[in-house]
Design a protein that fits this description.
The protein is α/β, with parallel strands linked by helices. Helix content is about 30%, strand content about 10%. It starts with 6 loop residues before the first helix and ends in a 29-residue tail after the last strand.
């Protein structure tokens, strides 16, 4: 089957493939969310280029890198706050609900596939999810919204079910995790 650039032909080809396959997954990137107002990563004026990610090793090693990472995270949130699922998110949710597609694998961190109605266990987020953070000590999740910030700019701790995700790499610290029942002498960063 030849690849087409005509959307109408593409829909016909996709429908034909879904009719004959036993199992399918969808893979999405920035393009599915641009219609929702979230800029893609590679555009010349991309906010992602002005707000470069901090490497995890740097985040873990240096408090100034952690502060930079949090400033970047909330600056990026301002760019796509209020974004709602676009047609692509909704179409994929319908395909998953109709059992034509088993899951969605995404490079996006915006949570719009879940907002479109997909269960978390049907979305594989390759780069994580920008709507919550997980304690590196106890794996407890905290929602990350501007409205959930203390006046100091630090995120207030709001519990979100930890789900089935694995624990992140741990780091030693003199501070104690603030989540109960976590009693490790490690830090919720």
């Amino acid at each position: 089957m030849a690849i087409t650039t005509d959307p109408a032909d593409g829909f016909v080809q996709l429908a034909a493939l879904l009719r004959v396959c036993d199992s399918a997954v969808a893979f999405t990137g920035a393009g599915v969310s641009t219609e929702a107002g979230i800029p893609d990563f590679r555009s010349p004026d991309s906010a992602w280029k002005r707000n470069r990610p901090v490497a995890f090793a740097d985040f873990m090693a240096d408090a100034s890198h952690r502060a930079k990472s949090w400033r970047r995270k909330f600056a990026m949130d301002d760019i796509y706050s209020g974004a709602q699922p676009a047609r692509g998110h909704l179409a994929l949710a319908r395909l998953v609900h109709s059992q034509k597609v088993d899951a969605v694998i995404t490079q996006n961190i915006d949570g719009l596939h879940q907002a479109a109605g997909l269960d978390e266990d049907r979305v594989i987020e390759l780069h994580g999810n920008g709507t919550y953070a997980r304690c590196l000590s106890c794996a407890s999740a905290t929602t990350l919204r501007r409205s959930a910030l203390h006046s100091s700019g630090r995120a207030l701790r709001r519990n979100v079910p930890a789900g089935a995700s694995s624990r992140a790499q741990r780091s030693r610290s003199d501070r104690r995790c603030r989540r109960s029942p976590c009693d490790r002498r490690e830090s919720c960063r």
